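Sorry to interrupt, but I need a hand with the structure work. I would like you to pick a protein and set down its sequence and fold. Please put the record directly below this note.
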Amino acid sequence: MTDLNKRSMLKLATLSALAAAVLVGCGKSEPPAPVAAPAAAPAPKPEPLKIAFAYVGPVGDGGWTFAHDNGRKAVEKEFGDKVATSFVEKVPESADAERVIRDMVGQGNKLIFGTTFGYMEPMLKVAADNKAVKFEHATGYKTGENMRTYDSRTYEGAYMAGVIAGKMTKTNTLGVVASIPIPEVVRNINSFTMGAQSVNPKVKTKVVWVNEWFNPPKETEAATSLINGGADVLMQNTDSSAVLQTAEKMGKRAFGWDSDMTAYGPKAHLGSAIINWAPYYIKATRDALEGKWATGQTWWGVKEGAIDMVSVAADVPEDAKKKLDEVKAGLKDGSFSIWKGPLISNAGKEMLAKDTVADDKFLGGINFYVKGVEGKVPGGDKK
């Protein structure tokens, strides 16, 4: 065999061995694993509903604004990261209100609450220019397609305070420090007096107007004047704790208003007529989140859990507490009406006939004092 043939045979043998090795290796190999498809990216989290609150006073006023801010906090607790709330405090009832509310719109807020009567016209103007934003106005009476109103029946709390006051007064003279002469405030003065008269027909009520919602020095001065004029139990329709504190210093009795004010004058405190804004604020927010928001007017009271009399003093007589419980129960189930005739003004005019129950339109336009309240409503009924 020639060398050439030998080399050819060796080359063939080598190639055959390599081919066999490849075949054996291929026989043992696993099929390649399938390539996993990339995981789908999680859906982006929806942006929170931005909600803004405009407050007329400071959040630390212990009364009106403090109560609204508690409602805002309740919204945060209820909805968590579905909402993002903010507030601006001490917004005057003036052109500044429109500026602040427009700025809230500019910051991307889609639900805006204005928490005082004087914001009504500014909010209407801003609402008309921003149809994609929902506006809520407290205590007003004008609405728009994207602006609605809400209120609490504070007169129910005033009436309950009157029941206690009528039993506790020794001079039969009550005093009210009043803010601004609008129907809401006049209604509360009258209801306080009517509650007191329901247990003590001898009661009369003196009123001093301060023409502001929050001005502690003026409130203090007014309370002092009332006490010097013979009033020994005071109520207020102002936003600070100054009236209760003045009563404490002068050895008289008084009520908390809008929030529980016990701590500001524990010896003077007879009870607090509080507002719980949380139920309404939670409802309004849910309406907006679920696309169910619609314009309209809401007025809630004891029945809806928005009004209550709390922290009643230990020395209030049991018969007064029993009467208070009866009033609460009647307001809750609708069996009791505060504004029911016969009702006579302090000028001797019949305002409601016997057994006639006032409707909300009547209540919303009250501009007279009932019998037992001294003086005249500023700019009110001249008849």
Q: What stands out?
A: The mean pLDDT is 91. The chain has two domains: 49-152+278-300, 154-267+306-363. The longest strand covers residues 269-275.
